[in-house]
Amino acid sequence: MRKPEVGSSATHQVKKMKKGLWSPEEDSRLMQYMISSGQGCWSDVAKNAGLQRCGKSCRLRWINYLRPDLKRGAFSPQEEELIIRFHSILGNRWSQIAARLPGRTDNEIKNFWNSTIKKRLKKMSDTSNLVNNSSSSPDTSDLSNNTTSSLELKDIIGSFMSLQEQGFINPSFTNTPITNNNPFPAPHMISHPCIDDFTPYVDGLYGVNTGLQGELYFPPLECQEGDWYKADINSHVAEMKTNGAGNVPAESMRVEEYWDLDQLMSTEVPSFHFNFKQST
DNA sequence: AACGGAGCCAACCGCCACCTG
DNA sequence: TCAGGTGGCGGTTGGCTCCGT
């Protein structure tokens, strides 16, 4: 525990910390301090740089805005595709996604996802509703800017509904139950509490295996980048069925087959080409 | 020109894990 | 062992900007 500062008191601690947007002067102070002194305890950084900010605020400002290695500007199509792929595997683990996108921050990626990509997924959902109301093929041209022609919505819908029937979709991930009128959660929303262990379907396609047959899994988070991973779904699914989804710790996984995350990410797959297996 | 809605994004909030005295 | 400080993270919010009417 850090010792309380000499002369500190309740009244001192209540001393008003500034909130809100950072002024150019504050940025300059923080930047200069970080360059000259480097990162230490953030509350000390705030104090020593003469900022009326809490340490947390300084840390956030530095990480998200002032850091010299930050990449500015819009996301490239390549970055965009990577984000989508990583998110399908990692879910909302923004910091882990950011760690794989040099120069990008978790906040940036989170904002990008919540504004741009979520909007697309909603469009996809709307499109799928159209599919259910007519037999004509949907226009999926907006799903991705390069490869979207092979989306098989009916298969996806069927698979999602099948998943739901089996209890493998956590209602907390979908605002409403999956029905013919609302059949289409985003792929990552299938992520019931076992999302860590669900993996994209990588043998040339991209999606989620809803057959739950045991061959597909995502490596545990504690694995290091470049490691080989392995896991087996069978025992896990059996446990899920016994205990109910949500009660199975990830540690219950049995290891059987390895995946390489980097290889997985670099796999040449057509974006948004889903090929779901039907449950048996 | 004024207004309102939508979208974007910087920053805050609350929680949690870890550390240290 | 415990209490309190700190850092890290994901979710959320509020304000600014843009755009259509």
TrEMBL record:
Residues 1-21, 128-147 are annotated as: Disordered. It comes from the Eukaryota. Keywords: Activator, DNA-binding, Nucleus, Repeat, Transcription, Transcription regulation. One of its GO terms (biological process) is regulation of secondary cell wall biogenesis. The keyword Transmembrane helix does not apply. Residues 132-147 have a biased composition (Low complexity). Residues 18-66, 67-121 form the HTH myb-type domain. GO terms for cellular component: nucleus. It is found in: Nucleus. One of its GO terms (molecular function) is transcription cis-regulatory region binding. The keyword Nucleus applies. Residues 14-66, 67-117 form the Myb-like domain. This is Uncharacterized protein. The lineage of its organism: Eukaryota, Viridiplantae, Streptophyta, Embryophyta, Tracheophyta.
